[in-house]
Amino acid sequence: MIKVLITATVQSHICQFHKPLVKMLRNCGDVEIHVAARDNLAEKNGLKLDFADRVFDIPFSRSPSSPQNIRAYRELKKVIDKENYDIIHCNTPVGGVVTRLAAKKLRKNGTKVIYTAHGFHFYKGASRKNWMVYYPIEKTFAKFTDILITINDEDYALAKNRFKCRTEHIHGVGVDSGRYRIISAEEKELKKARMGFDSSDRLILSVGELLPNKNHIMAVRAMKKVVEAHPKAKLLIAGNGPEKERIEAEISSLGLTGSVIMLGYCTHLEDYQQICDLSVACSFREGLGLNVIESLLSGNPVAGTKNRGHNELVKDRINGFLVNPNDVNALAESVNLLLSDSALLGSISSGCRESVKSYTAENVSAELEKIYFGQ
Questions:
Q1: 31 vs 52: CA distance, rounded Å
Q2: Quick one: fold of 2-174+360-373?
Q3: 166-220, pLDDT tens digit by residue?
């Protein structure tokens, strides 16, 4: 039997991003899977860790300087020392650092430590502060890592050249291509009606935590011009977080109440993807952009901001448009063009799913199996 521990700062991260990994491990034989992360599932509307054999609530904090992470280290080290894992797979910056510190002794006894970087905080164009703080940390902790997994080309090239550990690349965390799929025009109209929308509504989806980096407020501001050209256009924002009140205030001040709908945290995003005309993705920084892959698999073009994650997925006028961060006018123009030109929208939509076939759960599971077991 293989005994595996998966760690991250919060349990929702593992629920959302690591089911393909767990499925791969289950398919490969006799395996016991444990999870260690802070329990935040009450905030996530029904997410469940029902695929793990054991779950440890470890009080990680996302803030690297929080003294809470000292307690997290102590509690995690007790678990690691007691359970004697064959493989420890850690994720997220804080979860990755604390886990690798706690696993140092066990690693010397043969435990394999794997770390997935879901997007380094240092990258081309990042602030000097980010490079000074995060780069030395990742470079140091690479020495305590057997395999470093990256999910975009830029991070892979950097780690391969600068870090002293085995470095691999996979195509994201794997998206369920059966869940995120294209439906017929007839099914789309029926689903829109069931979900409370008119057949004439033009729906635009923006997905992600309500955090400053996700920059949903850019999409809200762009809607002022979009609604002027397309009065039936509606922006649906899916996610929760600390920016909620600020975004709601902006919606009100721009007179967009009714044209921008806050959905909150959704566990059935595929339903919204299937009834939308397109998606917007306005992040300043992305390791890859799960929401972009989900949209493209659903046949929806993406109007997104330029960053390393979006640049890897969105190709201008092939499966969407790319604009500069906070260029509200350019975003509005891209959305208006897609909504106005049905031939262009149809042409771009037709190639969306094919453009991200490498990012499906099936393909990523195969990539992970090769990394884990050399098959």
A1: 11
A2: Rossmann fold (3.40.50)
A3: 999 999 999 999 999 999 999 999 999 999 999 999 999 999 999 999 999 999 9
